[in-house]
Amino acid sequence: MIVQQGEGMAGVTGLTFLALCLPFLGALIAPVFVRRLGHNAAWFLALLPAFAFLHFCSFLPEIAAGQTIRGGFDWVPSLGLRFSWLLDGLSLTFALLVTGIGTLIVLYAGGYLKGHADLGRFFSFIFLFMGSMLGLVVADSFLTLFVFWELTSITSFLLIGFDHRREASRRAALQALVVTGGGGLLLLAGLLLIWQITGLGSMSELLGSGDVLRASPFYLTALILVLGGAFTKSAQFPFHFWLPNAMEAPTPVSAYLHSATMVKAGVYLLMRLNPVMGDTAAWQTILPVFGAATLLVGTLLAIRQTDLKLKLAYTTVSSLGLLVLLTGFGTDYAVEAVVLYLVAHSLFKGALFMVAGIVDHETGTRDITRLGGLRSAMPLTFAAALTAAISMGGLPPAFGFIAKEEIYAALAQAWPWAVVLTIVAVAGNALMFAIAFAVALKPFVGPLVDTPRHPHEAPPLLWLGPVLLALLGLAAALLSGAWHVYVTSPMASAVAGKELHISASPIPHVGLPLALSLATVLAGILVYWQLDRARFVMSVILRHLGPGPDRGFDGLISGLVRLSHAVSRILQPGRLEIYVTVTFLCLAAMLLVPLVVYGELPAMPARPNLQWHEATIFLIAVIGLASVVLARDRLTAIVSLGIQGFAVAVIFLLFGAPDLSFTQFMVETLSVVILAMVMTRLRLSSADRRPPLKMFAHALLAIGCGAGFSLLLLKATQAPFDLTLTAFFDRYSKLIAHGDNVVNVIIVDFRGTDTLGEIAVVAMTGLAILALIRIRAGGERKLAANDPDREEKADVENRMEAERS
Q1: Is the pLDDT at 594 greater than 50, yes or no?
Q2: How many domains are there within the chain?
Q3: Which UniProt keywords apply (predicted)?
């Protein structure tokens, strides 16, 4: 059932719109609050996403009852464009993750960046990022979706490059923007193609279109374009390299980016489109293949790392691969598994990233080989880390255990492809188990290691977030019945496009999934026990493999820069003569080629019956043209060009256009005067000396342009004259513009913007001429000032001037 906000629900619509706008309001007011309250402003700023979170929580009963809530406002009704939102189980869960975890991130950032000079700017960026992601996940219209999709790329660029004084931060930000922005262009093409195929411009309409998209011959093209956007956003292999590099951002950004925001956007898009693009051979092949590759690559690269944030970052890559794999697998169990794992991952990954930030903040290092024995100094942080690691490792009674059991229940099938994917999932989960407990145990157990700072427990602003997320992951498992009713079952139903009911619980069920879970745990313990050796082996393997996609990105950007320089040297050589020649060559081609190719050449006109004075004026124009061509110096050519222009003005006068004639007289007079002044002041060579071959080429070009215009005008005048515009201007010039002179009304009112543009062009031309003259004069003064004989030359010039007088 669909509930349309706005039909008797104006208050709810306004509150929903306010909830969507609150992050952007926070971006505006954050610097003011920080200036007044310092880092304690986080307590007040966190109320904004908290209010949005509570508002979206109010929809849980309706969504659980199977309702879908839509709302929005018309933007451009004539084009069918709306700012609209769609709330169902999928979008509501994402909205709750974005605002709920966002509230904790705001608090965490206040403690982590306490005393930072740019804390206000950081809060503005994080709120913009939050608002962009929130708008993306609730967007209904394709236009709204794409706008917020690109906003997430732009705001993540600002956050990743927050410490813009460091080259590594700038490179990581640019890399993320290029990869995700390029994918965004692919997504735009995909959405436009879907719009063209189905004639539908909103997700709610598309989800009700059935097999229209799958039955189209352009389905595969649309799928590849959509996957290009989703894979780049969610860091699927081989586009995974930008995500670990994004760890150059402050830890609050990393925690938010990896748990609830941008990297989940691609997965969200695949889940959203699963009902209309899934259940095809291409979908069920491409997604599992790339997802499996990403899962293995991410976990293997994570083993090599010693930095806590990088280890977690690579496991995020692998988790995203697992989510894509499950989304493409195509069974109901797989849909339930991907929903459970996405929620579990958001909770434990946000907590672990915050723990890594606390360890770095309180000890001065994130290197796992330089940490140990922090349990006694940081007991609360250790408890949060261990609870989150239990969920990430898939141990009961955490929510991650329920998700892992459901993953194995979905993949453990008898057919070969499912067996391969099951083996990949077990291997990836085992490695993630080892990494999770490496992050949660290595820094805290064993003897205390000396660190750059004396370790102690973090302040409440820092530990509040990881503690709450870790406890929520535990509570979600213990209260799984209610959690499934209000969160995961509606979300799974939205992803599957049909009603699903999840019943998984933390109580293990004897069978193949439990056996695979035990195998995962045993393999994970083995890797954890031999972690140093595994890290060494991976380093050796990667060293022999050579440069990866990250280095390839640098080569690509370097090649693009070199290519752009080469193209610029060809297209922009810095010679005005070439620019003008190419311009007139294109003009001649545009005029002549269509007339010749399409057989539109005009019929030869009859011999004109000219009076003697008319023929005289035409003869003067031809003589002026000959004078321009044969002139020996530039000034003669300018004056001859003016004679030709005056002759044309007289022709206008003779044929009943006195206003146009008057304009032509003024333009020609000013042109001659200005050009003569410029030529004399710039002191160019007196004559234009060109080789005969170049003169011949330029003559052909001039004849081509002239012939093209002449033929086009003849063709136009031979067509039947349409009086529609004439009648319109006659009828409305007096009525609308209150002017009797129709020509003046057209120029000033109906074409006022065009006239303004022409005036602006003339003004800019005058300014350019003035600048040239002043630059020339300034250069001459500078040369004269540097001339050692300037006084003697001045005396000679003065005597010569006196003699002339």
Answers
A1: yes
A2: 4
A3: Antiport, Cell membrane, Ion transport, Membrane, Transmembrane, Transmembrane helix, Transport
